[in-house]
Each structure stands twice: as structure tokens, then as C-alpha cells.
Amino acid sequence: MRGKPLFIALLVAALLVTLAVPAVGKPGKGNGGGGSGGNDAQIALEQPPPYVLGQEVTFATSGSRSSSPWVRVMCYQAGTLVSQETNPVGGNYFVDDIFQLGPTTSWTAGDADCTAELGFFAKNARWRSEASMTFHVEG
User: Is the backbone of residue 97 left (phi > 0), alpha (psi -120 to 50) or beta?
Assistant: First the structure.
């Protein structure tokens, strides 16, 4: 009878390990809020919270597989996209790395939930996210 509880414990442990493995991100996918995707790419805000409507922010990035990485910031109110800005990273372009958190014609007041992604445009012009993070903006 002693072997049966041990067998059940080992079976439960094996099941937990099996369920945990698929939770690890795959390369090239942002994880929706942890700061990095399934590869070595990382993105983080350089300014401390709180973030407010109209504030300018910058991002620290590293580990992109692309030689031409970009940062995309999307902000939502009640699930509706109210602001989106995409800029190249690295200063080799005629645009800066500064992102303004509204206002826009769709976002003149109120809080918003934002997602920032580090990624690149593939040859087919499709966006490929490598890392992502979420943050809240007070309006």
C-alpha cells in the first residue's frame, strides 16, 4: 500500500511539469506584459510611474533579432484603440525615440491601458513582436 501514494505523487508531479512547459513563450512572440518575449528581446519604460495623459516617454530595448527594430505603443480605453505610435529604435532615422501618451482626437481625457512592443517589420510588411509590456496611463 505504501507504493501507491508514492506513485500518485510522482504522477501528479509529472503532470504539473508537463503543464508548465507549454507556458514558456515561443521565440518571436511577445508575452503580453512581462517585459520580454520568448527570446532575449526586452523592452522597459525608462521613466518611473505614474504615467499621465500627454506625457512623453522613452523605452529601453535590447536583444532584438532584427537589425532594424521598432517600438509600437498602443493605448486603449474600454477596449477601443485610442492611440497608436510606431517608431524605429536606435537613432539612425529622422524620427526620435520619444513617444507621447496622447492626447489624440480619440483620447482627450480619461485613463487608458497601453501595450508597448519591441519588434520589426518582416519582408511581407507584417509586424513581428519580440517583446511586450503593459502599463497604465492616468487621464
Answer: alpha
The enclosing H or E element of 57 equals strand 56-57
Residue 114: Cβ within 10 Å count: 22
Q: Where are the domains of the chain?
A: 25-138
* Per-residue model confidence as pLDDT tens digits over 86-112: 998 876 665 668 899 999 999 999 999
Q: Which is it for strands 127-138 and 70-77: parallel, antiparallel or unpaired?
A: unpaired
Domain range 25-138, CATH class: mainly beta
Total-model pTM:
0.70
Under 8 Å between Cβ of 86 and 98 = no
